[in-house]
Structures are given as structure tokens and as C-alpha cells.
Specification:
Elements lengths: L2 H29 L2 H4 L4 H23 L3 H40 L4
Helix pairs in contact: 1-3, 3-4
């Protein structure tokens, strides 16, 4: 197996895993009404999900064929999701840290 074909297989495997994890998280988000937190209707959110999976599927096919556009597209999509997840997690941690700090300040008696 050539080196380029091995890289192609790794990209395709990573893209399939990314799509699978994305599907699981989207289902979880809909169960907990996350789109409503952003002011999005359920119908509009479903359209966004369909567009996301169409783009992901096309990029997966392009990567499987060895196209540079497929590799670059999967890289871009992966980085986009990474930035989104990191910023979401940072916001949650920041809010929790403020809440914990607020509780701990109120718990100590003032001198």
C-alpha cells in the first residue's frame, strides 16, 4: 500500500468518526433543546443538520477519491468543530467558575 493511499484511508476513517460523533452530539443537543437556547426553531435547526451532513458526506466522498479538496474540507470542518467545542466548553467552565467563586465568597463570614 502506498504512503498516499495510507493517508487517504486515515483521513476517511477520521471523517467517518467525526460524522458519527457529530450525529450523536446533535441528537443529544436536540434532546436537551440546545437550539432553543440560541433562539433557533426546531425546524431551522433540522435544516442546518441536514446541510451539515450533506457537506460532511460530500467531503467524505472527495477524500475517499483522494481529492485535495476533500482533505482540505475535512481539515477545515474538523478545525471549525474543534473551535466550536472549545469555545462552548470554555464558556461553560467560565460560568461555573463564577458561580463557584460567588458561592465560596458568600460562604465565608466577613470580618
Amino acid at each position: 500500500m502506498s504512503q498516499s493511499r495510507r493517508w487517504s484511508n486515515l483521513v476517511v476513517i477520521a471523517a467517518v468518526l467525526l460524522t458519527g460523533f457529530g450525529a450523536a452530539h446533535l441528537i443529544d443537543d436536540f434532546l436537551y433543546d440546545i437550539p432553543a437556547d440560541f433562539g433557533l426553531s426546531n425546524e431551522f435547526s433540522q435544516v442546518l443538520v441536514i446541510v451539515y451532513f450533506i457537506i460532511t458526506s460530500l467531503l467524505l466522498v472527495l477524500a475517499a477519491r483522494g481529492s485535495k479538496a476533500g482533505y482540505i474540507g475535512n481539515l477545515g470542518l474538523g478545525l471549525f468543530l474543534l473551535v466550536g467545542i472549545c469555545s462552548s466548553t470554555a464558556a461553560k467552565v467560565s460560568l461555573q467558575a463564577r458561580g463557584v467563586a460567588g458561592c465560596s465568597r458568600g460562604a465565608w463570614p466577613s470580618a
